[in-house]
């Protein structure tokens, strides 16, 4: 199955509890139907990206990166790569690369969607159709900053950095799924 077909199947099968998220899900599906290249960063009209809301083993802290190009604290994640089988694998790969943590587990059901304008690697304004997943770190995990970050820190979910209020819906959705005891499906290193 191609990355595009995988993204379509994932979003067709997901049923968000929130009307706004359902509306975005429908918009994503429309964009995917219109653009076969919608999962590739070369798609200048916009493209799907995969993010990871990395939570510690207790679910009380979230790992955020100080993004060098954006200049603010954000979740881990990024563009899909040609070798990614799907959005779940892309989010887990990005989380592992950007956190330096082995043994991350990802809930394969999307936690949150967000569309935002950005000038990314294309050098032209575009949009990211971001699909966000809840990811859990093993107990005692120590994050290691990669060259894709100016800083990397665990933040209490109740005390996020200044000017990060827009992250609250995403973090709330990820922690809510975890609090329901949803099963996790993929662990980094499982291949």
TrEMBL record:
Q: Which Gene3D superfamilies match?
A: Nucleoside Triphosphate Pyrophosphohydrolase
Q: Which parts of the sequence belong to the Nudix hydrolase domain?
A: 45-178
A Pfam family annotated for this UniProt entry: NUDIX
Question: So what family is this one in?
Answer: Belongs to the Nudix hydrolase family.
Protein name, per record: 8-oxo-dGTP pyrophosphatase MutT (NUDIX family)
Annotated organism of origin: Actinocrispum wychmicini
């Amino acid at each position: 199955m191609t990355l595009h077909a995988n993204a379509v199947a994932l979003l067709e099968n997901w049923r968000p509890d929130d009307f706004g998220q359902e509306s975005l899900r429908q918009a994503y599906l429309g964009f995917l139907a219109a653009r076969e290249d919608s999962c590739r960063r070369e798609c200048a009209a916009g493209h799907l990206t995969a993010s990871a809301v990395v939570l510690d083993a207790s679910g009380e802290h979230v790992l955020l990166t100080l993004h060098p190009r954006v200049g603010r604290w954000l979740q881990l994640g990024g563009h899909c790569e040609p070798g990614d089988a799907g959005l779940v694998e892309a989010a887990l790969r990005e989380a592992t690369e950007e956190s330096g943590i082995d043994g991350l587990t990802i809930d394969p059901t999307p936690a949150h969607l967000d569309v935002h304008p950005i000038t990314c690697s294309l050098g032209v304004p575009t949009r990211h159709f971001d699909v966000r997943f809840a990811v859990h770190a093993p107990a005692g995990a120590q994050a290691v900053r990669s060259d894709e970050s100016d800083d990397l820190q665990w933040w209490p979910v109740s005390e996020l950095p200044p000017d990060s209020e827009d992250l609250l819906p995403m973090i709330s959705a990820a922690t809510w799924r975890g609090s329901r005891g949803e099963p996790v499906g993929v662990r980094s290193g499982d291949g």
